[in-house]
Design a protein that fits this description.
mainly alpha
Length: 52
């Protein structure tokens, strides 16, 4: 998210009546945190250039 400039909270919607709420919240939190990776410092096109 930092690459897009967003620094606010993340929200996960929960709509599974068959899952215990606290378990679902903890699972969703782990999943979303795994998606929060550092932004690349390399431009997209530059990542495919070959050094000569």
């Amino acid at each position: 998210m930092p690459g897009g400039g967003y620094k606010g909270p993340l929200s996960v919607e929960w709509e599974d009546a068959g899952m215990e709420r606290e378990h679902g919240a903890a699972e969703a939190c782990r999943y979303v945190r795994d998606l929060d990776f550092p932004a690349s410092e390399t431009a997209f096109d530059a990542a495919f250039q070959q050094d000569e």
